[in-house]
## 1
Amino acid sequence: LGIDTSCDETAAAVVADGREVLSNIVASQVETHQEYGGVVPELASRKHIEAINYIVSRSLAEAGVTFKDLEAIAVTNRPGLIGALLVGVAAAKSLAYCHNLPLLGINHIEGHIYAPCMVHDALPFPHICLTVSGGHTLLVEVHEGWQYKVLGSTQDDAAGEVYDKVAKYLGLGFPGGKVIDDLAQKGNPSAVKFPRPMRNTDDYQFSFSGIKTSVRYFVEKARRAGLHIAASFQAAVVDVLVYKSLRAVKATGAAAITLTGGVAANSHLRASLKLAAAEIGAEVYYPPMNLCTDNGAMIAGIAYQKYQQGLRDGLSLNATPKGSIF
Ligand code: KG4
Ligand code: ZN
């Protein structure tokens, strides 16, 4: 059983042998946070406590198993919104205690990195993983045995976060990723030349807040059609993400790139990355959308691998808002 309550989704899933998803139940809180234009941590915690028991029960029922069939319970305990994480951790601890099952605390980012491996079982190692979500932008070299080398991350906003902010400036509601993606398809990506911060720096770091600010000023002064702004904004973000990911592939000689996190749904990012990777003979892999966005299956999946490696946590397991995967 894998449980994730790190942000605004209450998620539980049952996975067999690290790959076979028997159930994957997610309760989205998007309607709760919509009116605030972003996730309100306090409300997220309260929604999790309402939903958690039901979501866990449903994940078992849909998988056709009972607690007796489980081998272990895994829960995201870092990084994330602390109040939200605590709900999942407290639930997992109670269940582990009551049913006398081993407990594993899992890093949410490792879950995202593992998601593409659940569906592509012959993924080469090392490979480069680009994790892009509402909370994270991370370029990681993934080695055999689930060892990671973090190459770079965002210095300010996450990629999904700027999509959400730009959607707000354009009056498109929350969350903004999908709306902007759709609108951008009809717009001209060269209409506005937005900056590409840190594109040419000699590293794997990202910076997106400068793009966000440029879009904001542009929207305020020029009433240019939203679709052209959306397309030009998306072109800037995707350009930097693709350029740096390819740079990492070339430098490391990795044979594949995986794409994961909510922004992995982006049509322009998928297409551009595929095209650029094909030019250097690298493969691009991404999981289906229900494994890209926050879910419990990726947590159960990586937990299975860690369980094989001997990881066990005691009932004193705690949650922490930050958590590196070094
Ligand atoms: O992984 P996720 O569900 O939650 C976090 O861990 O943050 O990612 C949600 C993020 C939101 O910022 C949303 O706007 C973005 O993913 N997103 C997209 C698209 N679909 C969702 N961003 C760009 N293009 C999309 N098609
Ligand atoms: Zn996530």
## 2
Amino acid sequence: MITNTELEQKGNQFPNSVKNIRQEVDTLYFTTENNVILELTVLRDSVVRFRYGTRGILEEDFSYAIDPDNHIGYNHLELSENKNFHIVTTAKLIIKIEKISLQTKILDTEGNLINEDELGFHYEESFTLGGNIVKMSKRSHPGEAFYGLGDKPVHLNLRGRRFSNWATDSYAFGKETDPIYKSVPFYIGLKDKRAYGIFFDNTFKSTFDFCQERLDVTSFWAPGGEMNYYFIYGPEMSEVVQNYTHLTGKPELPPLWTLGFQQCKWSYYPESTVKGIAKKFRDLKIPCDGIYLDIDYMEGFRCFTWNKEYFPDPKRMVKELLNDGFKTIVIIDPGIKIDPDYWVYKEALENGYFCKRADGPDMIGKVWPGECAFPDYTNPEVREWWAGLFKELVGEIGVRGVWNDMNEPAVMEVPGKTFPDDVRHDFDGHPCSHRKAHNVYGTQMARATYEGVKKYVYPKRPLVITRSAYSGAQRFTSSWTGDNVATWEHLWIANNQVQRMCLSGMSFTGTDIGGFAEQPTGELFARWIQLGVFHPFCRVHSSGHHGDQEPWSFDDEVTDIARKFIELRYTFLPYLYTMFYEYATEGIPMLKPLVYFDQEDPHTHYRTDEFIFGNNILVCPIIEPNSKGRRMYLARGRWYNFWTEEYLEGGRELWVDADIDSIPMFVQEGAIIPRYPVQQYVGELSIEELKLDVYYAEDTIDSQVYEDANDGYDYKKGRYSLRNFKLRGKATDLTIQQHKGGNFETEYDTIKLHLIGLPFRIKKIKVDNVAYDLNNLDKEDKFLKLPEDFSVVQIIG
Ligand code: MIG
């Protein structure tokens, strides 16, 4: 144990005795004798913000992460004291602040200790750079587990490790590489089956130590800014993640086609190649909704231009692709080529929109176009200008989505591969150096891009995809995990990263299926597709240096497997859309790691491979070559094997067969899974009936299906359809009630129930109290056709 005296000798300073307390509505200010201020704000009964200032000063309050629309409101706030502590009580938490040190302990209302400061807040003045190095240390407990932190390519449970947050272009990163592209300084702690979260909203290069330096201590610090963190109590992990997502924001619904399959490569050109790829998808009947143009579509890598030799008439091409169901997405990087004849460069130069070095000149760095300058997206005026640049690309040419790359920002041939620290940023009117703005640069670029695409794609909905991100980026953009590698280890990484991103508020994420660098074997590609179709964002991408990476680039068997799983994804579209709706409205992650699904079961705390797709499908990818199946953990509860419909008791490890054309998949009993027919792209077919796979349970289970026009904004005016189902299973009957919300008329008139696992023989069926002619029942498959607006169906044995 290091003593305070030793730490003080190292230059650390500590708050001492509280001399003054002031309350302003939901905020309390505790000031110490040595002029440290703790500003404690109650946002919700279970969400409390702790912010510390020194020398009696708090900075002007500003955050890029916090959603300006986040709702706050609590039921109870009371300040009291005893001999040693000031005590703040909410309806869910008791926060004790030690009078002599400002150290805090947070308990639930039953008195269970949830989290407690070790040294608590302390700081070191930074004589070289100015400001403070702000630090926090917390006690941690044996068995306490840690999750979150965005895109870290490591084991889901972060315990025993140290990480830093500094957005970094990480070509061919590996397991353990840290940091990589994104900075999400949010983690979840799970102690004694109770979950809490800590969001350290500080954009500097923060570090988190989860019991690595000392076994019983978790700490986090940053070389500038304020100690400013939100404490979010559960006790359910779902409540922590949802509250974090409320705080940092939720996305709007994307157009449904973005949940389809997308194909990318560096690069498809010229036009004939793009068309050839598109045609091949249709010829081979492999569904696909999006095709990407990487940097070579531009003229000398100048953003917002086209290479007219490769793409003589982009508007025509984009339209022709669209006629065949393909939406075109193009890449846009932040580096603007220094070229006095290039209008984008000229406009930005004349208006002073580029980032500048400390002493005045523009920040210049080499990227794809050669020497470039870089817009300062942290300036609102620059963002508005940037958004306007999409008028032609999106509004006139018809591009439907924009892909933002290199926005860490990445710079070639320099140490650190990014801007030097002295570069200046506006930071929305809080001028600062790159040390503070670095981690948000990518998000502010994606935000400006989003504003532009959204404006010019209207009345359709936009798609933006980004490589770099800071907390809150999910309000504007989807993301991918950057330049991974075509190895089996990376398949494991991909699985962990997407689950971790889902826990970190950023569900709309995928990986480069098959791997970006190097070339996958057919087997690896097949296994990756099998996992990738369960990721919220589903795109194949590759560097193109080693060969082709389309679903048909291997052999016929792999092509068939790719088709089978992409088709499976298309049948799940209404299920995917409903999970996106739950994410967009309630902040519920689209994928749930097993520990999120059942935190009470300690077996889940160190699981990495199994996850829940949506609410009730458990998936476990095959991540080793030459597998005929694998051992895996089936979470507690009762499940049906998706492929065989075998009924299984969970809470145990088991072997599951999964030859090269299969993946272990289980559906929780009581689930109602909506399915569409296979389409080659969203909207190809008019949906004639909605199929519901009903998995019998002797229980009462609720589920829902969200649908709307699949694009556009009418849903905001109530034109959506939300079907709520209540399934009630008893030994000899099964009842399903439907309640419909919203006023969107779905295209289909029929709902087709597919009954799975009925433990009795059907003797009678009643639909809205009228007997159903059993001759209409397909007895083999137990298909039951109902009018889409049925209220109740009773299946009686
Ligand atoms: O320096 O645009 O991660 O997806 O294909 C490489 C070319 C730049 C890196 C991205 C990758 C993209 C590639 N880009």
